[in-house]
Amino acid sequence: MSTGPTDPITLENVYALAQSMENRLQNLEAKQYDTRPIWEAVLASLTQLEKNVDELRVDMKDVKKDIASINRQMGFLAKEFVRLNAEQLIIDRVERLESRP
Q: ∠ CA(88), CA(93), CA(99), 5° rounding?
């Protein structure tokens, strides 16, 4: 039994409207899904993701330390190369001077 705007407001009409709303609410509740397992899975995924990010941060710190060490070694090697190149230039000049008559 539905009540429209022209129906008189009676106790039966109010009861029918309440009953109709109760039925609609029950239908909605019956369709409602339990989202708890979904949220538990999401929470577990987020927890694992946080652990992975923390591990990546530690790894990145190690990588930065390694890169800094490599940069120091490259700087040392570059200086050593310049020194050896200069030394070789001096040796070449001395040999040329010594080979002159």
A: 125
At residue 91, what is the residue type?
I
Distances (CA, A) of 81 to 68, 88, 92: 20, 10, 16
**Per residue in 9-49, pLDDT tens?**
788 888 888 999 999 888 877 777 677 788 899 999 999 99
Amino acid at 6: T
Q: What are φ and ψ of residue 10, in 5° steps?
A: -125, 165
What residues contact residue 17 under an 8 Å CB cut-off, 6+ apart?
3
Q: What does residue 28 show for φ and ψ, rounded to 5 degrees?
A: -65, -45
Residue bearing tokens 């190690």: 62
C-alpha to C-alpha distance for 81 and 67, rounded to whole angstroms: 20
Q: What distance in Å separates the CA atoms of residue 71 and residue 69, rounded to the nearest whole number?
A: 5
